[in-house]
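Exercise 7b. Backbone tokens:
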């Protein structure tokens, strides 16, 4: 197990597998960061239910774009261009959860509640990781990600508490995004995941991270008076 700390000046000295894994994860992370605003800005910025809600949408998008900028800079420093991600259509994103469009406030809120929470889990993986610049960068990003999650969680809970048709719409959104969220962790028996752990880039297996996520989010869903969806139905990656 690799335990050293790698700075940018040390990168070229590293094993090719390490370099390729780090380039890959930065490319995918950059694509996810810029993919978020592409999901919701077009419809939610003009159609959010209030002026304050519009401001939250705009601020969230701006923070995600800044997260993209940080990932893009780090990737570029090690020879990985992420320019192509700026022109990807939603359908071309690396992660399946981003291959759609958000057109309702319920979906926007639940996306923050569930999918941004996965984003936090993914960023958490890099705390104290072997690549020091990545460790430092995610520490500046996590507080903003937590703000996105809190907003999504609060709004989802408030809408569910209204009952009736409103609660049904929130349940429908939870049923859709919950499965997408679980798939974001990847295959439980992923060989690449083990190599990320070997090189100290990540600290948990895909299965461990997914199980921790479910242990955190399932009680929150139940606390809103909603039903936790079947964790296996419609899954792409088990």
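Sequence design result:
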């Amino acid at each position: 197990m690799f335990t050293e700390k790698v700075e940018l000046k040390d990168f070229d000295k590293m094993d090719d597998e390490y370099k390729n894994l780090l380039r890959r994860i930065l490319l995918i992370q950059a694509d996810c960061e810029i993919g978020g605003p592409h999901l919701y800005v077009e419809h939610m910025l003009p159609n959010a239910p209030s002026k304050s809600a519009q401001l939250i949408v705009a601020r969230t998008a701006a923070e995600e774009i800044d997260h993209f900028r940080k990932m893009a800079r780090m990737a570029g420093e090690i020879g990985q261009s992420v320019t192509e991600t700026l022109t990807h259509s939603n359908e071309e994103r690396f992660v399946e959860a981003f291959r759609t469009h958000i057109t309702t406030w319920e979906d926007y809120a639940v996306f923050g509640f569930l999918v941004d929470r996965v984003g936090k889990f993914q960023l958490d993986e890099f705390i104290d990781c072997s690549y020091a610049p990545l460790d430092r960068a995610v520490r500046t990003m996590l507080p903003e990600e937590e703000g996105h999650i809190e907003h999504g969680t609060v709004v989802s809970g408030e809408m569910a508490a209204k009952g009736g048709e409103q609660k049904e719409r929130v349940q429908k959104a939870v049923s859709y995004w919950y499965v997408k969220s679980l798939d974001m962790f990847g295959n439980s028996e992923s060989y690449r995941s083990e190599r990320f752990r070997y090189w100290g880039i990540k600290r948990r297996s895909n299965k461990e991270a997914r199980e921790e996520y479910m242990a955190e989010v399932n009680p929150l869903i139940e606390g809103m008076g909603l039903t936790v969806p079947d964790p296996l139905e419609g899954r792409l990656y088990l």
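Instructor comment: The chain has one domain: 8-223. Residues 8-223 form a domain with the Ferritin fold (CATH 1.20.1260.10).
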